[in-house]
Amino acid sequence: MDIKQLKYFLTIAEEGQITSAAKKLNMSQPPLSQQLKLLEEELEVKLIERGSRHLQLTDAGKMFMNRARQILELTSSVEKEVKDFSKGLQGTLSIGTVSSSGATLLNERISEFHKEYDCIKFEIYEGNTFTLIDLLNKGIIEVGIVRTPFNALNFECKYAKTEPMIAAIPKEYYWESAQATISLNELKDKPLIIYRRFEQLICEVCMEQGFEPEIYCKCDDARTTLLWANAGLGIAIVPKSAFELATNNNLLYREIESEKLRTKIAAIWVKDRYISPIASKFIESFGRI
Predict the structure, then answer these.
(1) Exposure b/e, 118-134, CB count within 10 A at least 16 = b
(2) Closest CA to 240 of 271, 258, 262
(3) Rounded distance, CA 227 to CA 121, Å?
(4) CATH code, residues 3-84
(5) Phi then psi for 162, rounded to 5 degrees?
(6) Tell me: domain 88-160+264-288, CATH 3.40.190.10, correct?
(7) Which of 88, 150, 236, 278 has the lowest tally of Cβ within 10 angstroms?
């Protein structure tokens, strides 16, 4: 049994078909089938049940798949660690970011990091928190930049400062106020445009104030939330730093008076997994700012 066979088996298991697995591996079907047969003969156990359309993993196959994935991840980490050691602090750092972290991440963190380590390049993946967690677990990115709240159970975390949520108000909805803040009760019966992952939190704090929020639109991106508000369709509720990301010529904003409607950006990485020197330095830098 060798690393190549483990890769073959995992591809077959993930694709569910020999044909599509062979295509993904850029090889013909008969040699791939032969490699699977040799692997099963060596282990003296059936790993896959062949069906007319799809393949099914046996219980032994499921166990072997998990172990094979761990072995390949460890192999990849060892290769990366040795290469990083030989190159020093050079290379490319792959990180993932949620859209609402963009301005803060660029202005306050990457710019400072670049001044100190100007030989390092970046590969950026954008998505919502759930997408970034999936990319972290798959090893596609080393560090994810996400917003609270999120499930931190399997991750190491380093947090940035807390920031308030704001109400981004179209000028046609705006009511005169000398205050720099806005109370939750002032948002009662107003059409709200919210980032879906904050829905539960927003509803909870509004209900504590005795009213159910009038949610006009839910979406998965802070930029979209602000874009809709800028078009005059409602009042956006977003983290304060996200306000810098969209075209806001039709918007004014007020910080929301609520200790519970606060959020912060966090750098997260998978527990007990190798972190490159580049990623370690970035995390260290993230925590200083």
Answers:
(1) eebeeeeeebbbebbbe
(2) 262
(3) 31
(4) 1.10.10.10
(5) -75, 145
(6) yes
(7) 88
Alpha-carbon torsion, ordered 12, 16, 22, 28, to 10 deg: 110
Cα–Cα distance measured from residue 233 to residue 128, given in angstroms and rounded to the nearest whole number:
23
Q: What fold does the segment set 163-261 form as a domain?
A: D-Maltodextrin-Binding Protein; domain 2 (3.40.190)
**Contact by Cβ (8 Å): 153, 261:** no
Q: What's the Cα-to-Cα distance from 212 to each of 185, 188, 191, rounded to whole Å?
A: 10, 8, 12
- How many beta carbons lie within 10 A of that of residue 153, not counting itself? 6
Q: Tokens 């062979």 identify what position?
A: 22
pLDDT tens for the chain, 289 residues: list them: 888 889 998 998 888 888 888 888 899 989 988 988 888 889 889 988 877 677 888 899 889 988 888 888 778 767 766 766 555 567 788 889 887 675 556 556 777 788 877 778 888 888 888 889 888 988 889 999 888 888 888 899 998 888 899 999 988 776 665 577 899 999 999 999 998 888 999 999 999 999 999 999 999 888 888 889 988 899 999 988 888 655 567 888 899 999 999 988 889 999 988 888 888 888 888 766 5
